[in-house]
Write a structure and sequence with these properties.
single chain, mainly beta, 22-stranded antiparallel beta barrel, five-stranded mixed sheet, 15 helices, about 10% helix, globular
């Protein structure tokens, strides 16, 4: 639509304007320039914006104007002297139109007054919004408080509009007051997206960039970190959380695997253009987040951009707005989404019996135990719930270790208070935020708290110089329940192993009742009560100063300096106490000796950015923009670790108050980066788009002769929808832009000193600390000769890994952008990856160094669909879908023999698909018909190599090579024997589906997330086996017996047997890791504006929200499919490990949260 529709009404608006025009004055001497040039000069010296219809006002007319400290009104009177033009000035808006047109407009019959306030979705007043009576020229503009007043006809309909917001038509009826809330038009073509060192209109983007506004994706969800908010919000940005422990971090990845080195390396996060920890930022302080996914978008950041870029723009307040306060809170109650389910005590002991165990390792006789179980459950005997015979305790009564160790519910509270505003030449924002979370464990050993303070101010010193200062501080503390105990340092491992009839609370040592024998059991709850938590503290301080100069028209120079300091400490001291082992009632100390250990580290990052941007339009059709810049960063890190044994006082743990051995270790590292960069943009008539980026990087992580690299990118787009031949389809196809890009990026995410031959003194001892002693023992004693370890070998051509990305995409908007579609297909090649050159002979005394000798390729696609519309005048709704997928393959690796597996892990090789799972194909169980009368297998029935005797109920595998034995051949890709690729643990077809609907002041939103395809080999996913079985879970109970030959699991073996053969990785026990989760549902209500006005507030919103409400999946009860991560080469998965979680065991569960709160603006 032509903007003239709005401006025709604006010309006759009647409003009592403030004296802004008297305050703003200009000085210039312009000769023989266009009227438009005069407008631009006024814009550069003031904050005025001009509104006019290009078909109505001749802005190409040549004029000469000289002004010395004149008001803008005086200047415009000179420009339009003797011209039939009306100039209306309202605040910082100037509306211009010809007087002849206004004379042609009909006279409006006014009969009654309507008043109200126009606000945006956040409750902020909208200044200069157009309020017009439909079908007439009668209208006005909202004032600085968003208020309007207008004389209207009976049965009038108001049209309310403002650039960047959805146009609304509202019947007045009999109302005398009508408040209006404008909804931001997220699909406007003029939407600005933050890119590297600047911003661009969304419609002009040619790279793969996704941008979200934080208020839209955060909403009222009970989440405390930005990574939680971004989960499933951006296609291609993979975020997963392996544990629900308070304060735990999340994994982030953009478009799949980038390198075999540091595969868990996260994307670079830049907050207002400088690095910062995303988990330490309050989401309420963020304005928007842009994700740069391809090389064309990220190449401007060069060597730091190999894993993608996440650009965070913080809120800063607005000029010409009165002071405003915003307070929000969120109170959440949490409980586990799911818990493992153990079978009952009777069935557990029966499983021991089926295993063939006679004497249990706790001293119990299994047949006797079965007798007592039968008497307890079927005959009502042994009311104490246990029997003591010959000093051995037989536990009978059921207990619930999970219920005992967990509190009724966890609790989380969040608060945020912000103050913002601005004058003609300044804007500011100050905020304070906090989150406090108490987990689901008994006591306070699993807590997390974080405090955030931020302050921003921008000041226009002159019309060509402005300065900005941004200061941010955050501090967090995390308590992690350790539950240290001999034989296990994992609270969750103890909970997993704890028998369903094992006693809780306290008991007597060896069942002898006496005061000195009355001790706690080693139950998880007692461990929580008696042990200390691990304490982690962290603080972040960032100071950012920025100076912006506009010395001449169209040229902007920006200088930035930032100081960023991180400090952290981690301490732990296990309590030493005696407790009872539940299986035997025997006394045991919790640890062999007490100790205290502490780690302190800090890092500082200093960064300088200096860049200039110049834009120019030639002949109205050719638009050029050039940006040149310089970047320099330096990073310094120090850490100190200390440990002391045998504390004098356990209540006062410290390194100095100990009588035992003390250990220390420290670490120092630093690197520097120096770069020059540029970006060139060109478009012709806004239809043909071209962008070129380049960065020349130098990194201290490489030797001087290979330290520098140049990384360019090219991208182009064609706004096909703007072509004349598309005009007949304009009603349906609002926007159509195919685009293509190619670029290369360096990867400096490698060791700081990988190119140097380092040497270490002494040998490792006690948890990794160097004791300063060599490996040579003096004769006749235990003394060591102090010596240096052998030096490492280095490569002479150790240099950059390079990442090349080719991307083809299309942006499509249909039906006035009600439907928006964004699709991308990409291929990313990581070349010259650092990898071991080859195996070294043992006589060398050292391994070969890493060289740039490997390559990796990732292919993928992503699609985003968004639909926004309304039903009638009061119901608005939206739905959206994000879907993406990628696969990675090793294209070069030094593995000439094609070795498959080494030490339980896949060996990288050319052609390996990342995440592939090698295993055997399950045929069926052996049956009695497979054996002769002597128990030997019949001819033609294959056996597992190394197994001397199979039994009915063992697993029979498919013999692919037909040699009569199940084996892995010679363990190479050319001869894998009976092994083959049976699955892949890469998450495929990841998706999110969101939607929302609003009616009057109510709104409802939802979010679904999930994965369409994934194969899992879960750790410890097997039937009970061995002689040390404790708990048996419900998914383990369907095992083979002579009366249950159609079981899920094979036959059980206690001592010996064919467990190792049966437990080979195989197709039968490959799990389906796909899932669908109802991630969030939120119901909100906004207090009507007329009530808010009476309460002297701008906005008040109440909400009720649920997070992680339901998950539909294929795993056993108690497990979540996204709680498992795949390490490179691992055939099975690893459960999330966050300090208190044991490898391969169940860990802190994902939380379901129910929350409520409010958001108040005043």
């Amino acid at each position: 639509m032509k903007i003239s529709v709005l401006l025709l009404f604006a010309a006759v608006f009647s409003i009592s304007a403030k004296s802004y025009s008297q305050e703003a004055r200009v000085t210039f001497d312009l000769k023989n320039v266009s009227v438009n040039e005069v407008f631009n000069t006024i814009r550069s010296q003031t904050s005025y914006s001009f509104w006019y219809d290009v078909n109505d006002v001749d802005v190409n007319r040549v004029v000469s104007v000289k002004a010395k400290n004149k008001s803008v009104k005086e200047v415009l009177d000179i420009v339009f002297k003797n011209k039939a033009v009306d100039v209306r000035m309202v605040d910082n808006h100037i509306v211009i139109k010809t007087r002849e047109m206004s004379n042609e407009l009909p006279v409006v019959q006014q009969s009654r007054k309507i008043t109200g306030i126009v606000k945006d979705a956040t409750g902020e007043p909208v200044i200069g919004a157009n309020v017009v009576e439909k079908g007439t020229t009668n209208g006005t503009i909202t004032d600085i408080d968003g208020k309007y007043s207008l004389e209207i006809n009976p049965n009038a309909v108001l049209i309310v509009s403002y650039i960047g917001y959805v146009r609304q038509e509202l019947p007045v009826g009999k109302q005398e007051s009508l408040d209006i809330v404008l909804k931001e038009d997220a699909e406007t073509l003029d939407e600005v997206v933050v890119v590297g060192y600047g911003s661009q209109k969304k419609i002009n983007l040619t790279g793969a960039i996704s941008s979200v506004k934080m208020d839209d994706v955060l909403g009222d969800r009970p989440v405390g970190t930005v990574t939680q908010v971004l989960e499933s919000a951006v296609p291609g940005l993979q975020i997963s959380r392996q544990t629900g422990k308070p304060g735990s971090s999340m994994n982030m990845n953009i478009r799949g695997v980038t390198s075999t080195n540091n595969p868990e390396e996260k994307p670079l996060v830049l907050v207002d253009n400088v690095p910062m920890d995303l988990d330490m930022i309050d989401p309420n302080d963020i304005e928007s987040v842009s994700v740069l996914k391809d090389a064309a978008a990220a190449a401007i950041y060069g060597a730091r951009a190999a894993y993608g870029i996440i650009l965070v723009t913080t809120k800063k307040g607005k000029k010409e707005t009165p002071i405003s306060f915003n307070y929000s809170n969120n109170f959440a109650f949490s409980n586990p989404t799911t818990l493992p389910k153990k079978i009952d005590p009777y069935s557990t002991v029966k499983a021991y019996n089926d295993l063939g165990i006679v004497g249990y390792f706790g001293g119990q006789d299994i047949p006797t135990w079965m007798q007592y179980m039968d008497e307890y459950y079927n005959k009502g005997m042994h009311s104490n719930g246990y029997v003591v015979k010959d000093g051995i305790r037989y536990n009978l009564a059921p207990t619930d270790v999970y219920d005992d160790m967990l509190s009724n519910t966890g609790f989380q509270q969040q608060h945020n208070l912000a103050m913002s505003g601005g004058s003609e030449r300044a804007n500011y924002r100050v905020s304070f935020g906090m989150i406090d979370e108490d987990g689901i464990l008994y006591g306070d050993n699993d807590t997390y708290s974080r405090y955030n303070v931020s302050a921003f101010i921008n000041m226009d010193v002159t019309n060509w110089l402005s300065g900005q200062l941004d200061v941010r501080y955050s501090e967090s503390q995390t308590n992690t329940a350790k539950g240290n105990r001999q034989g296990s340092n994992s609270l969750w491992a103890v909970a997993t192993e704890y028998q369903p009839m094992a006693p809780l609370g306290y008991g007597y040592d060896m069942n002898v009742e006496s005061e000195e024998n009355y001790l706690p059991f080693f139950s998880p709850r007692n461990m929580l009560e008696l042990d200390n938590p691990q304490k982690d503290r962290k603080s972040d301080t960032r100071i950012l100063g920025r100076i912006i100069l506009t010395p001449i028209k169209d040229l902007t120079i920006t200088g930035e300096y930032s100081f960023y300091r991180q400090w952290a400490t981690k301490s732990y001291s296990p309590m030493m106490y005696d407790a009872l082992i539940a299986t035997s009632n025997q006394r045991n100390p919790s640890v062999t000796k007490n100790y205290y250990e502490n780690t302190n580290w800090f890092s500082t990052t200093n960064a300088i950015n200096l860049f200039a941007t110049y834009g120019k339009t030639f002949n109205e059709d050719h638009n050029l923009k050039l940006m040149l810049g310089y970047n320099q960063e330096s990073y310094h890190y120090e850490s100190l670790w200390g440990k002391a044994d045998d504390l004098i006082d356990q209540q006062l743990p410290s390194l100095s108050l100990s009588s035992g051995t003390q250990y220390t270790d420290d670490e120092f590292k630093e690197y520097a980066l120096r770069s020059g960069f540029f970006r060139f943009n060109y478009d012709f008539k806004g239809k043909y788009l071209l962008e070129v980026n380049g960065r020349y990087d130098g990194s201290s992580r490489f030797a001087k002769e290979s330290r520098f690299g140049f990384f360019p990118s090219f991208s182009a787009g064609w706004r096909l929808s703007e072509e004349s031949f598309m005009e007949p389809l304009k009603k349906y196809v609002t926007n159509l832009k195919p685009r293509i890009s190619w670029g290369t990026i360096g990867n400096q995410n490698v060791s700081n000193y990988g190119y140097m031959a380092g040497m270490n003194p002494g040998k490792l001892s006690n948890g990794g600390a160097f004791d300063g002693k060599g490996t040579w023992i003096l004769p006749g004693g235990e003394d060591y000769v102090l010596s240096m370890m052998y030096p490492a070998l280095v490569s002479s051509n150790y240099t950059w890994e390079t990442v090349q990305t080719f991307d083809v995409g299309v942006d499509l908007g249909l039906l006035d952008n009600k439907l928006e579609v964004v699709f991308d297909w990409y291929k990313r090649d990581t070349k010259d990856m650092l990898a071991p050159y080859k195996s070294a002979p043992s006589v060398l005394g050292a391994s070969f160094p890493n060289t740039n000798s490997a390559s990796l390729q990732t292919k993928g696609w992503e699609i985003s669909l968004q639909w926004r519309s309304n039903i009638g005048e009061k119901i608005r709704y939206n739905v959206g879908l994000n879907l993406y997928d990628s696969q990675s393959e090793i294209t070069k690796y030094d593995n000439a023999q094609g070795i498959l597996v080494n030490d339980g892990k896949l060996v990288f090789r050319e052609g390996l698909k990342y995440g592939e799972i090698w295993g055997y194909t399950t045929d069926r169980f052996y049956t009695a018909a497979d054996f002769d009368d002597n128990g030997n297998l019949l001819p033609g029935i294959p056996k597992v190599k190394g197994v001397t005797k199979h039994n009915p109920g063992d697993i029979l595998f498919v013999d692919f090579d037909g040699n009569g034995e199940i084996d892995n051949g010679n363990n190479t890709i050319d001869n894998p024997g009976d092994m083959s690729v049976i699955g892949n643990n890469t998450a495929r077809y990841q998706f999110s589906f969101n939607g929302g609907i609003s009616w009057n002041n109510f709104d409802l939103s939802f979010l679904f997330t999930g994965t369409g395809k994934r194969d899992l080999v879960m750790p410890n996913y097997w039937s009970p086996n061995g002689t040390f079985v404790t708990s048996v879970f419900d998914f383990q109970s369907d095992y083979w017996r002579e009366d249950n030959t159609e079981s899920y699991w094979p036959r059980l073996y206690g001592d010996g047997g064919n467990n190792s053969a049966n437990q080979k990785i195989q197709t039968k026990y490959l799990l389906n890791g796909s899932y669908l989760r109802l991630k969030n549902v939120t119901l909100g209500y906004n207090l009507p504006n007329n009530i808010c006005e009476k309460l002297f507030i701008k906005r008040l919103r109440f909400f009720f929200s649920g997070e992680n409400l339901f998950t539909w999946h294929h795993l056993p009860t108690g497990y979540n499919p996204d709680s498992f991560i795949a390490q490179p080469g691992n055939l099975s998965m690893t459960s999330g490990i966050q300090g208190d979680s044991g490898n391969g065991n169940w860990s802190y569960p994902l939380m379901r949260q129910i929350s409520f709160g409010l958001n108040l603006t005043f």
